[in-house]
Amino acid sequence: MNILRKVSVRELQHNLSEYFELAKIAPISVTKHGKGEVVMLNLNKYKVIKKKSSKKDKRGIMSLGFFGMYKNRKDWKGKSTTEIAEDLRHRATYGK
């Protein structure tokens, strides 16, 4: 497993071409205010990871069982799991 090299946004801005080349070899975690924000990753490695994850479960978040647990809620009646997920995201972002 590759160890993520951590770099701040400011450092990345000042040395973008250097980190661009390093990201081709190993993933780089970009931090903002000390918190991880994004990962720079070689495109071919990303494709491999994406392919592996899609083979495991094509349903993604919908397979977690959470939605089935509340399937009988009155306000979700007749909605697809995708609509429920969007509703939850909206509520988490903007409140009720």
Care to describe what's here?
The mean pLDDT is 80. This protein starts with a strand and ends with a helix. The chain has 2 domains: 1-56, YefM-like fold (3-Layer(aba) Sandwich), CATH 3.40.1620.10; 58-96, no CATH class. It has helices at 9-14, 16-25, 43-56, 66-69, 81-94, and strands at residues 5-8, 28-32, 35-40. It has 96 residues and is of the alpha+beta class. It contains 5 helices and 3 strands; from the N terminus they run E-H-H-E-E-H-H-H. A 3-stranded mixed sheet has the order 1-2-3.
How is the secondary structure organized here?
Elements: E1 5-8, H1 9-14, H2 16-25, E2 28-32, E3 35-40, H3 43-56, H4 66-69, H5 81-94
Parallel strand pairs: 1-2
Antiparallel strand pairs: 2-3
InterPro entries: Antitoxin_Phd/YefM, YefM-like_sf
Pfam families: PhdYeFM_antitox
Function: Antitoxin component of a type II toxin-antitoxin (TA) system.
Largest sheet: 3 strands, mixed
Structural domains: how many: 2
CATH class of the largest domain: Alpha Beta
Relative strand content:
15-25%
* CATH superfamily caption of the largest domain: YefM-like domain
- Whole-angstrom Rg: 19 Å
Q: What's the CATH topology label of the largest domain?
A: YefM-like fold
N-end to C-end Cα span: 42 Å
Average pLDDT works out at 80
Query: How many helical stretches?
Result: 5
Spatial strand order of the main sheet: 1-2-3
Under the CATH scheme, which architecture of the largest domain would be assigned? 3-Layer(aba) Sandwich
What is the N-to-C succession of helices and strands?
A: EHHEEHHH
